């Protein structure tokens, strides 16, 4: 069961992604799913290493055994500098999981071939990774709550639609500001509903 503290931590991750320019709730869930999958690969590898150490029997490996391959593991890169994390995840881990095609992993990897890394900055990625790691290591550790986490995220998707909280994509906001070129003397009317004018995106909210 998702408690208030767990909900707050998921909400914080969600807000960090929105602040970083990922405003479509479907894209938020997609990017979080990719990162959760990346973490689960390392968890599976750690489990096989424990079995190997106990049994003495060599187990199949997911990640290449050289330094570059090991650097792609969640447990190895999560504490690095934000720029290093961003480079590893964007230029190494994503191409790696897209090329896996299900080998030695769950069937989910077959659907990763079209995965796109859309997180905009190293700082945002580091916040998301720190938030997910805190959630998994402290709040739901040893608990079978993966399904509950997904259900809560899907519930947020439904709520966002009902409450009109699909936020304007950053590139659209930037374009509107450039077109209007407002000055400190200008007054901006904050239209409550997008239905008032013919426009395909929610209205830019004045701040």
Please provide a written account of the structure.
- The chain has two domains: 163 residues; 40 residues, no CATH class.
- The C terminus is likely disordered.
- The protein contains eight helices and no strands.
- With 207 residues, the chain is mostly helical.
- Helix 1 packs antiparallel against helix 6 and helix 5 packs across helix 6.
- Helix content is 57%, strand content 0%.
- 19% of the residues are buried.
- The chain is globular.
User: Beta-strand percentage?
Assistant: under 5%
Largest sheet: none
Q: DSSP helix count?
A: 8
Number of strands: 0
Return the structural class: mainly alpha
Could you tell me how far the N terminus lies from the C terminus, measured between alpha carbons in angstroms? 36 Å
H and E order: HHHHHHHH
The residue ranges in which pLDDT falls below 50 over 5 or more consecutive positions are: 192-207
Please compute the radius of gyration using only Cα atoms: 20 Å
The tally of structural domains comes to 2
Estimate percent helicity. 55-70%
- Characterize the overall form: globular
Mean pLDDT: 79
Features of the shown structure:
single chain, 207 residues, mainly alpha, 8 helices, 57% helix
